[in-house]
Amino acid sequence: MIVQLTKYAEEVSAKADRESRLAQVMLTMGADGVLIYEGEKFHHFEGKKFDEGKIKSVVGAGDSFLGGFTAGLLSKQSLADCVENGQLCAEKTLASEKNVSPEITPALIQLK
Known about the structure:
This protein folds into two domains: 1-47, no CATH class; 50-112, no CATH class. 44% of the residues lie in helices and 13% in strands. The chain has helices at 2-20, 61-74, 79-94, and strands spanning 24-28, 34-38, 41-45. A hairpin with a 2-residue loop joins strand 2 and strand 3. Helix 2 packs antiparallel against helix 3.
């Protein structure tokens, strides 16, 4: 599966680079982690194990991941820290009945 996704990420990145000069392509793969393609380099980050018994809803988890990841990028954190922020935000939303957990705050992801 990772090989297929890597090829897909390369194709998307090549097209995006020609059309918009996109710097990164990110694929979130749930328990299989996160794959980020930057130019010619791939970064794979392990998935975080979630206690399935605590999941109340999956609605908004992807958006929460992206919000935490992007907040890290904007505060100049490393890719690993950005992914960790995103996973933490997704975990909070998975355990919430709300579309986005009210526990997600700048303090939660320790923004600078």
